[in-house]
Amino acid sequence: MRNRITDIFGIKYPIISGGMVWCSGWKLAAAVSNAGGLGLIGAGSMYPDVLREHIRKCKSATDKPYGVNIPLISKYSEELMEVVINENVPVVFTSAGNPRIWTSRLHDAGIKVAHVVASTKFALKCQEAGVDAVVAEGFEAGGHNGREETTTMVLVPQVKRHLDVPLIAAGGIATGDAMLAAFALGAEGVQVGTRFALTEESSASEEFKRFCIGLGEGDTMLVLKKLVPTRLVKNDFYREVEAAENRGASAEEMAEILGSGRARKGIFEGDIAAGELEIGQVACMVDDIPTAKEVIDRMIDEYNSGLERISRPLL
Amino acid sequence: MRNRITDIFGIKYPIISGGMVWCSGWKLAAAVSNAGGLGLIGAGSMYPDVLREHIRKCKSATDKPYGVNIPLISKYSEELMEVVINENVPVVFTSAGNPRIWTSRLHDAGIKVAHVVASTKFALKCQEAGVDAVVAEGFEAGGHNGREETTTMVLVPQVKRHLDVPLIAAGGIATGDAMLAAFALGAEGVQVGTRFALTEESSASEEFKRFCIGLGEGDTMLVLKKLVPTRLVKNDFYREVEAAENRGASAEEMAEILGSGRARKGIFEGDIAAGELEIGQVACMVDDIPTAKEVIDRMIDEYNSGLERISRPLL
Known about the structure:
2 copies of one chain form a homodimer. Chain A has helices at residues 4-9, 26-34, 48-61, 77-86, 100-108, 120-129, 152-162, 176-184, 194-197, 206-213, 236-246, 251-258, 262-268, 292-310; strands spanning 15-17, 39-42, 66-71, 91-95, 112-117, 133-137, 143-144, 167-170, 189-192, 220-223, 230-233. By secondary structure, chain A is an alpha/beta fold. Chain A folds into 2 domains: 4-204 and 286-308, Aldolase class I (TIM Barrel, Alpha-Beta Barrel), CATH 3.20.20.70; 206-282, no CATH class. Chain A has an 8-stranded parallel β-sheet. Chain A has a 3-stranded antiparallel β-sheet with strand order 7-11-10, with helices on one face. In chain A, helix 4 (77-86) links the parallel strand 3 (66-71) and strand 4 (91-95). At the A-B interface, helix 7, helix 8 and helix 14 of A face helix 7, helix 8 and helix 14 of B.
């Protein structure tokens, strides 16, 4: 299949791996790109020097297009941008900030740009800023999330009604059936987080991966709404957060409970009880730890057989 | 199109109108059934005598199958059940309770039964209870909602993995594109609330309808989580609820703020400021007040053109 997303990024399949903190290192990005998708390195958990190293290793592991996700709230965002420009990274996904600041500078460096949003309002700001594509991410997604809580099922078609540049759906997409649903809603690509976080090549700890493939429905929840709304696994740390929120704790108290380095502790170091475990609702459908290539191959098979299944028009 | 849902209920299109309090009277139910869908009368806001009247008017307005939704938490659930059995209603959708109690008695009366759930666990309880179909309703839906906050995009395929009886998707479905997405996720039918609540035949007040078609993204939110999680429009009443929740108000305080008759006041009487305005996230995509038949005709057209649009397999 070719569409605007495959053409813009020069990829075979319109499947992009999310740039997830502590999961999306060079190994995962290169594996996704080698399998025909677009692998993203997640710079949100990286110092600029660390990002440079990941980019160089990624380049030596794949000759296919790959990208870097840079959350604009990172205190190193300037330096991270310098790194991606100097290293001639072909694609940058930005998130958590104003796309206007960086899009034209990245374009000047020959870099394709997409920005992640959780509302039509910000999708249109991205379009005005000249991005090549927009990622619309729904409430079911893991980690940082929008304040309006709009789900993928509502957000994607609503953004699609107003947007001209190609749309990538994110949130709740771990299978080819869900990819097909996203395309039915008007997306031309999917950004997949949770499913790729729980692969062999993900840099998350084995403890985190094994714990997450055992999760069921209702085992994650969107909390920390007085800071940045974040979807977390309901572990001991979550319950502490929940209790504080139920008693009406202030943003300052919440920031203190969160502390720093919590996501690293949970995802990378594997402290399942005390860490901040960011993963999407769709973890309930993820039961194994395959390679990234297996994920993509399965998704394409499921997409095609799903299409066959529903391809009888209503008469 | 024929599938298990159209066969079980004897309908032309696998589109069911939700049994919404103060919206789903005989007029809406008959209009949906006459247009080829399955119209439900919403008994949740009705005394048994009122339900009987609605059923009789519905029967005189359509010779097509129709149904009644009975929330099992209604204090009149016993009497409402007697009414549907005595009136030979062909279909009953139950919700908010244990499906085991009523399914066999309804079956003995020759009535087809579906039950509404928000999790796989309860979907499987429905199947054990012998229901003919299960409705899986996601977090984006209006009004009463599940505690686990699982969205339609995740809930439907997850339920589908485990369920043998036919599955009806609900939550966020107002267009044929969303219906197609639901079918991609494994549903064989859709239950549509918000879109039918805002039609000519809906018994909601004109004030409520006109206000709701002006809503945008983020204008509803799931609150009242210490009582029954409910998706409401962010009006003055909502802000009172929100403030109380933010200061950690108890369930008792929340019940006092809610009071009684709030949904009637908002939806039926049109008190937009002080009423409890139950509507789904997808209200942001609803911009007009057509007839129920126009809704169904549009959905079928959109479904078929959406299918055509995505019907190229990934190569």
